[in-house]
Design brief:
With 159 residues, the chain is α+β, with helices and mostly antiparallel strands. The protein is 65% helix and 12% strand. A four-stranded mixed beta sheet has the order 1-2-3-4, sandwiched between helices. The C terminus is likely disordered.
């Protein structure tokens, strides 16, 4: 009986060793999968960021042509208390702000920050032209021209 128990103990120890080896292999595979997922997420974020920057640059270029004015890029006026405007056309007092909400978790913070920018710009006589996914989906030049000309007409400014 003792030898039968020794055989069972040996078999169980072998199974235990096999299970430990299998568990370690699963942990390794899981770590590799997590690394691949992280890389894919980073690649996706980078592609979105590039697309976003390209769209923002296009909007600024169109506004430059319409207004015949060179903007201040990444403008940090003191009255915005550390917040930034993507582009500011000083001669016309028009700011261009690009908003593209990708991260739903941060959406409330972004919306509150954008609301604050809107109010502060209005209080300081600056027309804040916000570009977003709607302009991206629509015809960008036509939509921007319409919004800028509408503001210029309201402000009695002449190009």
């Amino acid at each position: 009986m003792s030898s039968e128990l020794d055989v069972l103990i040996t078999e169980l120890e072998a199974k235990k060793t096999d299970e430990k080896t299998r568990l370690e292999a699963l942990r390794q595979s899981f770590a590799e999968l997590e690394a691949r997922i992280l890389k894919l997420e980073q690649d996706q974020a980078e592609r979105e960021s590039k697309k976003n920057r390209k769209f923002q640059t296009r909007c600024i270029q169109i506004a430059k042509e319409i207004l015949n004015d060179e903007p201040i890029i990444e403008y940090h006026p003191s009255f915005l208390n550390g917040l930034e405007l993507d582009a500011f056309f000083q001669k016309h007092q028009i700011a261009l702000e690009h908003s593209w909400y990708k991260d739903v978790k941060k959406l409330e913070d972004i919306v509150n920050r954008d609301r604050q920018k809107r109010c502060v710009c209005q209080d300081n006589g600056i027309f804040l032209l916000e570009t977003d996914i709607e302009i991206y989906i629509a015809n960008v030049p036509t939509t921007l021209i319409y919004r800028i000309e509408k503001n210029l007409n309201c402000s009695n400014l002449v190009l």
